[in-house]
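hey can u check if this looks right to u? its 104 residues, i copy pasted from the old doc so theres a chance i mangled smth
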Amino acid sequence: MNNAPRPPSRIYLEKSDLEDILLHLSEATLDQETHTIAALENERNSLQRDLAALKIKWAATYDIMRRTSSTIEVLMGLVQTWGSRMKTERRKWMANSTVAITIN
């Protein structure tokens, strides 16, 4: 410790006092950084879980859309086939009706 008189208008700190302050600041900073890292890791883990859940939902949604699209294609084919058969049956009916009318 220095035995020299302290100047009255200035704050006087020994070198060891400054080192103690720096050590406490460094510990506080390290604690804060550790807490921040832990909080960020928790947030990342939460986001990863959310992303995994969304991927599962999206896969199910995509599968439903794919199946719906396939079903629509099948239905469109059936409608076209039905339309063609209806025209054919109508023509047959009209032809039979014409024959029946001319016979009477």
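The chain has a mean pLDDT of 85.
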